[in-house]
Amino acid sequence: MKYFGFRLWFIAILFVLSAIVSLPKELRMQFTLGPLTFDRTISGPALNVSVGPLQIRNDLNGRYGLDLSGGTHLVLEADLSGISSTDQEKAFDSARDVVERRINLYGLTESVVQKANIGSSKRIIVEMPGIDDANQAIELVGRTAQLTFFEEGTKSAQIATPSSAKSIWSSPTGLSGKHLKRSEVTFDQNTGKPEVSLEFDSEGATLFEEITKRSVGKTLAIFLDEELLSAPQVNTAISGGRAVIQGSFSADEAKQLSIALNAGALPVPLKVIEQRNVGATLGVSSVTKSLFAGMIGLFIVGTFMIIQYGLLGLIADIALILYTLTVFALFKMIPVTLTLAGITGFILSIGMAVDANILIFERIKEELRWGKDYQTALRLGFDRAFPSIRDSNASSLITCAILYWFGTGVVRGFAVTLAIGILVSLFSAITVTRTLLRLLYR
């Protein structure tokens, strides 16, 4: 009894929270059907509730892909002049992978990174939704990020070297970005300023300890490409393979530097030959039409369930409404970047959520026909339908995993939204529907 009451309260609280997060503060519905025109705006409360560390608000903005919200389009050309002909294709593939890793580490989803061969020119086409600043995009994906360390050189060595930023430190140490194991943003405990911490692998840790041991009292210069990041004085030998890059960083600059270092250096230089901001190709109109199509689908499915299963179908419809609100809330809170392909995956998952209820209800009807009472039929119906529901959804999740692993861009978006929908539909069918039916039959 206590567990049953807990589940009822949990479902009620989940419904309220999902509704708060999912529903917009203002919803306008407008359509024309023959002589009938409907145009109405529904305004909801602007809720923003904080309970300890928990914050609930209904002003979370959804994230949309390039086809719905626009973004930045870049065309990068790879300079392969310094690569042998036998290794050019491998270097080109590696550059494309590094660019995609940097974008993923930055938290951008639904981005498109693809190769293009135009004559002898090898290009990488990048589309990043939600990034309006093309310069920011170029800085993120085009930086070579070659991290090198230089010891302080002698005066004669400085004169003998060409004039450059590195000439005053003309003794390369052999320690570079290839020895980097991990980089992350930290904050100085005394000043609170952001800095970038470095952790080297075993070879790099040994090199770093040797370098700092012979550089006590001198400066050790840290370069990213040709840019001097920091030149701290070494006060003592440092063991353990850890270092910190300090400078006049903003938090975002430190994050981008850490991303570039974690993603690895580009094997070949990339030159931007085209950049432009892309407006939404489909925009608000397509989102509205897609949501309207989803509402029609929900209405038809709900009507079918009531006609076919009566009161059982009404219970399934209530569970389906909670399912829809929960999925939308998850899309906003994760957040998931929605494209039309992603919306399609969500609408498809609605049908799959109903499939589970149909299997359960048919089993319950069979048990009732065999003379079982309602409580027993309910228990057996769920227990005997569950293996089929489990196996069908497991196979669908495996398909989603394959699409996500091997796909890119909108294909991954479809896989993500479908997988979230399947997982929530399992919860909806097994927990919500079962609890509501038990409440009904009591």
How is the secondary structure organized here?
Elements: H1 2-22, E1 26-33, E2 36-43, E3 48-51, E4 54-57, E5 63-64, H2 66-69, E6 71-78, H3 88-105, E7 112-118, E8 121-129, H4 134-142, E9 147-151, H5 155-160, E10 171-176, E11 180-187, E12 194-200, H6 202-214, E13 220-224, E14 227-230, E15 242-245, H7 251-263, E16 270-278, H8 283-309, H9 311-333, E17 337-338, H10 340-369, H11 374-406, H12 410-441
Helix pairs in contact: 1-9, 1-12, 3-7, 8-9, 8-10, 9-10, 9-12, 10-11, 10-12, 11-12
Molecular structure report:
With 442 residues, the protein is of the alpha+beta class. It folds into 3 domains: 2-18 and 283-441, Multidrug efflux transporter AcrB transmembrane domain (Multidrug efflux transporter AcrB transmembrane fold, Up-down Bundle); 71-144 and 269-278, Alpha-Beta Plaits (2-Layer Sandwich); 147-246, 2-Layer Sandwich (Gyrase A, domain 2). Helices cover 52% and strands 23% of the residues. The strands form 6 sheets. A 4-stranded antiparallel sheet has the order 7-8-6-16. It has a 4-stranded antiparallel sheet with strand order 10-9-13-14, with helices on one face. α8 (283-309) packs parallel to α10 (340-369). 31% of the residues are buried.
